[in-house]
Design a protein that fits this description.
The structure is a homodimer.
Chain A (H helix, E strand, L loop, with lengths): L5 H14 L18 H19 L4 H12 L9 H15 L5 H9 L3 H10 L26 H7 L3 H7 L5 H6 L4 H12 L4 H15 L3 H6 L2 H15 L5 H10 L5 H16 L5
Helix pairs in contact in A: 1-2, 1-4, 1-15, 2-3, 2-4, 3-4, 3-6, 4-5, 4-15, 10-11, 10-15, 11-13, 11-15
Chain lengths: 279, 279
């Protein structure tokens, strides 16, 4: 066997994330949407790899992320893995630097610059991403403005870490950036200690993360009540009180997609792969 | 959208091949074996990419193939895509050279050397591949001898094309090498003209190839009668006289795996992607 590189493990994490099943409401091997199919996630992962390679060799996190998103968007379904790449890019940078730890990735994200923030905003020009309206005082920093927001970033001297920290309370990926990726590392360690096929372990990791906190993507696209219902029912699946497959079918039918939790699973798989998870 | 590179399309072809379903007897999104799972094919495709990149930039076909196989073998299930890589490598070399045509790939394979043949034999040392016993007069060239067979290759001045041509009547991949990859190009053109999700098109391509000729991997692992039965029943599925899913379940239960046909589908998908198939 040859060793996979850091970027290969990151790409594989994206592929294993979408391959694991069931993951209620998300595209997986057994469930897809007419306009967002399993094949789009395969192409998204393949396309993202060159950007992930840049992060692994120490390119700026923002520019590596933007490049990964641009490559990911090279398929016809639009946004497949924007959030997952936002989780993975700093983890890949830390791993490339030989320090894939909570402290290592915290140094990476706290070391981001205003230029990284500008790249992050430019990344929104490659693909439509569902986001909430910003508060009134932050309208000029609405990510949907793309590069038009860059002068404002520069005048306020906001780094990418600052931008993420400011939305940590409404976005589960930003919350990881602001808290040493603690949920991702904890879930990665549990996944490594788990047993059985990787696809099953990743599905369990998904349920555990979903049961622990409301999914912020569901809050954005539906509302907090729905996110809390999903959280409660994920808990019921783990407790054996609800059927995982029926729950998965229902969420797809209702177009309720706990995508932030899936993004965290991609990071979880990457941590586990880098720490020796055998596939 | 950014364009995928030749090597990215080859990797994506491997991923889309295993993602398409149903593909009776083969691992696909909905069926797997306990010791050969969907996740192993994801890791195999990711691992193969550096070797495919070498083929795309004009490295020797044999050494690029050996490198791809070595990377593919970097997962715990052994052989996932040896045959598919033997189809893809010369196609990737032709595409990298800007001439992905029957004539272009024929030039590539006829241009192989004794050194390419030696690399091909070395590739068998990275992974166990199910092959038939060779005829008595070719025992010294049994691929399972790996690099021990190289002096014999050299003394007979056999190129990789010679080696493949000599097994064209018993191996469906070798038959492509000896006939300008005609079945792959024809299937690729049909897949491009087809409509609907790529996963469905690839499944139809699989059934059409399977119905047209006995799968040589089934001949090797079972016998010719089984291969002919599988061919006949693939025809029945296409004619609407047999249920595809039930047939797929039955072949998995019987451990009958038309793997050569799956290898050709990987090539088919690559040709279609290079010619503009939208994913």
């Amino acid at each position: 066997m040859t060793e996979r590189s850091v970027a290969q493990n990151a790409e594989l994490a994206l592929l294993l994330e979408v391959s694991s099943t069931p993951k209620p409401g998300n595209v997986d091997r057994e469930r897809e949407y007419d306009d967002l199919r399993f094949e789009h996630f395969m192409a998204g992962a393949v396309g993202a790899r060159p950007g992930l390679e840049r992060a692994a060799v120490g390119d700026a996190v923002g520019s590596a992320f933007e490049h990964a998103v641009e490559g990911m968007a090279g398929q016809s379904a639009g946004n497949t893995q924007f959030g997952a790449l936002l989780v993975l890019t700093p983890l890949v940078a830390a791993a490339g630097d030989g320090d894939l730890t909570r402290g290592g990735v915290d140094s990476v994200v706290r070391g981001t610059t205003v230029a990284d923030a500008a790249s992050f905003y430019r990344a929104f020009e490659h693909v439509d991403v569902a986001v909430d309206d910003p508060p009134d005082d932050l309208e000029s920093l609405d990510v949907r403005r793309g590069s038009d927001a860059i002068p404002e970033l520069e005048s306020r001297e906001l780094t990418l870490f600052d931008v993420m920290e400011s939305s940590a309370d409404v976005d589960g990926v930003a919350a990881e950036w602001a808290s040493e990726f603690d949920r991702v590392f904890s879930a990665g360690e549990r996944l490594l200690d788990d047993s059985g096929p990787v696809a099953d372990r990743a599905s369990r990791a998904f349920f555990e993360l979903l049961a622990a906190e409301p999914d912020t993507f569901v809050v954005t696209r539906q509302d907090r009540a729905t996110a809390e219902e999903v959280q409660r029912r994920a808990r019921a699946v783990l407790d054996g009180d609800e059927d995982a497959t029926a729950f998965a079918e229902e969420l797809v039918d209702r177009d309720v997609n706990p995508g932030t939790t899936a993004d965290l699973v991609a990071g979880t798989l990457f941590v586990a792969l880098e720490r020796g998870l055998v596939v």
